[in-house]
Design a protein that fits this description.
Length: about 400
């Protein structure tokens, strides 16, 4: 089979699909991953074919816009640009014989449905965060506070209506470009939902249980992990630092806090010293950096190799980093910034693997030092994280997705 995976966003929105794609490729399928051009080395390094989508995940994006109107305008422009890029991807694939199935992320699905209709091929959703309305919790982008069963589900439906508004122009453009019958983004979504189009959710049921009120066709399968080469190793400097003392704490904010590296580095070092701990600081988008005894600043390294050797992980509570810390069985100090991060921070607390979130806007030396002391010194947090890790080890998300894609194509 020729399979096209489409995704968009930051590193955390792309990396999981490299592992999924590699598993599909290992089963004998021809797999292409379409993402922003900056991720071409990541995708090709996992053995997949790459197609470029427009947009720079490093620039000031929709999540950073000021005000609701500006947010909607920025998001709409981003999505319309993305839709135009998917037209180019479809044309490139058609020139090479087409595709047999589409695997769509939550961000690309409302656009990808038009491609599936135009190409007359089946499509499968592969989502990293809960997106369907439920009584169990509020929409993940609305924060961690429950609104009650009725309120949660109502807010979830309202959230989807906002998504339909953001995608309206791009869907109209795509349907016109592919000579498809006119239909609104809301109508296309409703038609897919009535048909119970299959969506696999790439997070662990040990972290977020499948809501009982979800429709058939929505399944929680576990995490898709970023591809890792069999010979991958930590840099020598990291190995030397790890061997030179007790397990350190990791501190990193991924793609968040751009330009605040110097301030955050000083804050992190002060908190580590107050808590009596060593630290590994990952520079990330913030440009986090610090020097001194008991502190090492690093660039990108595989979390799967580093996290199991740590005392705790301080992170922005993105879906991927949250899962990686739990998989390693180490406690966390979540410092959520925006979007779905408060949701995942709350889930870490709920499963007992974190002492509670420290919102980024309230991050101080005292608050971080206190949370670190609790996370590292109280064994209950590590014990809870290890219990989740054991549950995660029984899940085979890529294997289940492989079966679903092959079954979808056969039907």
């Amino acid at each position: 089979m020729k399979i096209l995976i489409t995704t968009a966003g930051s590193y955390g929105d792309v990396a999981p699909y490299t592992g999924l794609g590699a598993r599909l490729r290992a089963a004998g399928h021809d797999v292409t991953l379409a993402a922003h051009d900056t991720f071409a080395p990541l995708v090709r390094g996992s053995g997949l074919r790459f197609r470029a989508l427009p947009g720079d995940p490093g620039r000031r994006g929709p999540a950073a816009a000021d005000g609701r109107k500006e947010l909607m305008r920025t998001a709409t422009a981003f999505v319309r640009e993305l839709g135009a890029g998917l037209v180019g991807v479809a044309e490139e694939e058609a020139a090479e014989g087409g595709v047999d199935a589409l695997v769509l992320s939550a961000t690309t699905a409302p656009l990808g449905w038009q491609l599936a209709e135009a190409m007359d091929v089946p499509a499968l959703g592969a989502y990293l965060q809960p997106a369907h309305p439920t009584r169990a919790f509020a929409p993940v982008v609305s924060g961690a506070r429950s609104l009650g069963g009725w309120g949660n589900r109502t807010a979830g439906r309202f959230s989807l209506r906002m998504v339909d508004r953001v995608y309206a122009d791009a869907v109209r453009d795509l349907r016109s470009r592919f000579d498809l019958p006119a239909a609104t983004s809301a109508a296309v979504r409703a038609r897919r939902e009535r048909a119970h189009w299959p969506v696999l959710y790439g997070f662990s049921a040990a972290v977020v249980a499948r809501p009982a009120d979800w429709r058939p066709g929505l399944d929680v399968v576990g995490n898709w992990w970023p591809h890792q080469a069999p010979d991958a190793r930590l840099p020598a400097a990291v190995e030397e630092f790890l061997a030179d003392g007790p397990p350190p704490v990791f501190i990193g904010f991924g793609s968040m806090a751009t330009g605040e590296g110097e301030r955050l580095g000083q804050l992190a070092v002060a908190a580590l010293r107050r808590a009596g701990l060593r630290g590994v600081l990952q520079s990330g988008r913030a440009g986090l950096r610090a020097t001194g005894d008991g502190v090492l600043t690093i660039g990108e390294v595989p979390h799967a190799l580093l996290f199991p050797r740590l005392a705790a992980v301080v992170h922005h509570a993105g879906a991927g980093t949250t899962a990686a810390a739990l998989r390693a069985g180490v406690p966390a100090v979540p410092v959520p910034v925006t979007a779905d991060q408060p949701f995942w921070a709350a889930r870490l607390t709920a499963v007992g693997a974190a002492p509670g979130p420290v919102p980024f806007r309230r991050l101080t030396v005292d608050s971080l030092a206190d949370a670190l002391t609790r996370a590292v010194r109280d064994p209950a947090y590590a014990s809870a994280a290890q219990a989740v890790a054991r549950a995660m080890a029984t899940e085979d998300a890529a294997g289940q997705t492989l079966k679903a894609v092959e079954g979808l194509a056969r039907r």
